[in-house]
Amino acid sequence: MDNPTTLLVAIMFVTIVVTGLVNTLMCLSDWVTGRQNVAALQASWLVYLLFTFLSYFWNTEMLLEVEGWTFLSFIGFMVGPIVLLFATNMATVVAPEGAEKSELERHYFDFSRRFFLLMFLVQVWLVGLDFSFGMIDLPTYLACLSGLVFFVLMLMQSRKAHFAGAVVIWIALVTQVVRLSFPA
């Protein structure tokens, strides 16, 4: 990488990713240490966000291979992490202290529509990136599947549907993590 613009794009990308990662870790820390109660579904999405940010950070290396940045391509590349950061900020807001289980679940469903809309938009961004770089592969199909699940979850307010959606998304994430861990 001889292009200083690529380095600047990478620094901005990593800054946004690390901000989301820290927000997620701080919320998870409060949950793990017992300072905050979180609905089980919300906790699942927080752990999902943790792994998502870690995978984004890990994939920063691919960004360093891009040459010929324009301001429009820079903005297009930053949109995904920014939207993911917005979704993270929604998911890290916890219910008031001492909330009952039903209140935790109500809190989850209060933010879930907007959260899943943002998560859907992140998947659209990922698919768009894959098409723009001509890298249509298993991750592209997983992003399409995830986007579809997030869209359905955005429309539904059923605990069972959200649980089933979480299972599908986790399977897609584990598939992606395995792929990253054992490259072909």
Describe the secondary-structure layout.
Blueprint: H1 4-32, H2 40-58, H3 60-63, H4 71-91, H5 101-132, H6 138-155, H7 159-181
Counted by DSSP, the helix tally is 7
**Secondary-structure element string:** HHHHHHH
The biggest beta sheet, please? none
**Any idea what the shape is?**
globular
Helix content: over 70%
Distance between the termini: 24 Å
Give the rounded overall mean pLDDT.
Answer: 91
Unreliable segments of 5+ consecutive residues: none
Strand content: under 5%
| Cα-based radius of gyration, to the nearest Å | 17 Å
Secondary structure tally: strands: 0
Structural class: mainly alpha
Explain what this protein looks like in three dimensions:
The structure is a single chain. Helices cover 79% and strands 0% of the residues. The model has no long low-confidence stretch (mean pLDDT 91). It starts with a helix and ends with a helix. The chain contains seven helices and no strands. The longest helix is centred in the middle third of the chain and has 32 residues.
Quick summary of this structure?
The protein has 184 residues and is mostly helical. The protein has helices at residues 4-32, 40-58, 60-63, 71-91, 101-132, 138-155, 159-181.
Please tag this protein with its features.
single chain; 184 residues; mainly alpha
